[in-house]
Prior knowledge:
Blueprint: E1 8-12, H1 17-28, E2 32-37, H2 40-52, E3 57-61, H3 67-81, E4 86-89, H4 104-132, E5 135-140, H5 144-147, H6 153-172, E6 178-183, H7 191-194, H8 198-206, H9 216-227, E7 238-239
Parallel strand pairs: 1-2, 1-4, 2-3, 4-5, 5-6, 6-7
Helix pairs in contact: 1-2, 1-9, 3-4, 4-6
The protein binds nicotinamide-adenine-dinucleotide (NAD).
Amino acid sequence: MPGVEGKVALITGAGSGIGRATALVLARGGACVVVCDINLPGAEETAQEVTRAGHRAIPLRVDVSQLDEVEQAVAHACAAFGRVDILFSNAGIAEQVPLLEMTEAQWDRMFSVHLTGTYNCFRAVLPGMLERNWGRLISTSSMGAMTGGVRLAHYCAAKAGIAGLTVAMASELARTGITVNAVAPGVIDTPMVRQSPERWVERMLKTIPMRRFGKPEDIAHAVAYLASEEAGFVTGQILSPNGGSRMKWC
Length: 250
Ligand SMILES: NC(=O)c1ccc[n+]([C@@H]2O[C@H](COP(=O)([O-])OP(=O)(O)OC[C@H]3O[C@@H](n4cnc5c(N)ncnc54)[C@H](O)[C@@H]3O)[C@@H](O)[C@H]2O)c1
């Protein structure tokens, strides 16, 4: 298990799916976890799972699209555990709607949760990381940022924005001890995917060479590697665990 022992990890969207699995994996590796989600009961459930397993966690209700809420969460994290070493910006929403039927509010909401949410998280945790010359900024793009997706223009564009933000910030922070990377999951079996139309789910399965959806843990372990001490030379990368989905000849 890559080293995260003694680190403090703040994870958004940790009340469900990939975020919850990552909270559990990082906690098992010895990190304290700050479990943030707009859905407080979900965050509480994750934090209970972590503490029941004998590790340390606090749940917080946070809307990542609001900078003041994210800054308060970081202040809470520092009060509870002293600092934030690892950020996993992962909160997300999904909906499928053709561009011409999409309202401006739907477009804006997609960007405010994914892209502005990630920017808000970076802003809130960076000052402390810069003081200590150590940090791991990891965010969640999507394979869809590279492949596109029908009725997903706002989602794919926001996720592509996260990939661009990742590479830009990796350059900006290259000499600071802070690495910046993203995961770009393929289709992962979480509540977000289970709410998609059955026909879409069946079609997607056929496009995956491994003929299975990913498990939240498949992403959690990739995040744990990027968060680790051992990944100190890895920055500006978009790692896409996807069951081989981008290979052409399978
Ligand atoms: N599941 C997939 O196939 C897949 C593929 C590629 C990328 N992703 C991305 O992975 C991330 C996690 O998704 P998941 O599949 O675990 O979905 P999920 O629905 O299980 O979890 C998303 C979590 O984000 C929380 N959230 C939503 N809006 C929020 C906000 N404004 N502030 C704070 N929390 C908020 C939700 O309450 C939920 O707990 C998302 O960014 C998603 O876009 C998922």
